[in-house]
Amino acid sequence: MFFSLLLVFVIAQRMVELYIARRNEKWMKSRGALEFGQNHYPLIVMVHSLFFIVLIIEVAFFEKQPSPYWPFLLFLFALTQAGRFWALASLGKFWNTKIIVLPHADVVKKGPYRWLKHPNYLIVALEFIVIPLVFQAYYTAVVFTMLNIVIMSIRIPAEEDALKQLTAYEEAFPNEKSNKEIGKI
């Protein structure tokens, strides 16, 4: 029952987020925003969808029970959800599951974006670990952590390139060296 409740909560949350993302996409594109990363986006959707399928299979097939540490892990999950809400709220209408950039828009540097360029990606990485660990689904935690690393190695550079092309992204983060500068060292 606990597993079902948590799963329904997370899936319902994702459905609401997809609705918000579509609404934000329409708003941004109506103002001239451009979309990037269309080639890797289906891979992201596939991995996130498979995460739930594999988690359900692992928990059901191997009859996994909640971890003895589930209260602590559930607390960590709650923290990730608070961070997720903070990150999405900080971006407001600029948040999306896709890479959609409004030319010349101000780079968001509030909320968790004051300290991290991609806090929501960190939160997703933590969710891929914490949610399975609540139910001792170690296989799911390891496999989807590895898949997420692969996806983020594609996604983050694509997003940063898009932001650099259309906004003052590099000026917003002046203390960070670009890939070109690092290559010269």
TrEMBL record:
The chain crosses the membrane at residues 42-62, 69-87, 121-147. It comes from the Bacteria. The keyword RNA-binding does not apply. It is found in: Membrane. It is a multi-pass membrane protein. Keywords: Membrane, Transmembrane, Transmembrane helix. GO terms for molecular function: protein C-terminal S-isoprenylcysteine carboxyl O-methyltransferase activity. GO terms for cellular component: membrane. InterPro entries: ICMT_MeTrfase, Metal_cation-efflux_comp. This is Isoprenylcysteine carboxyl methyltransferase.
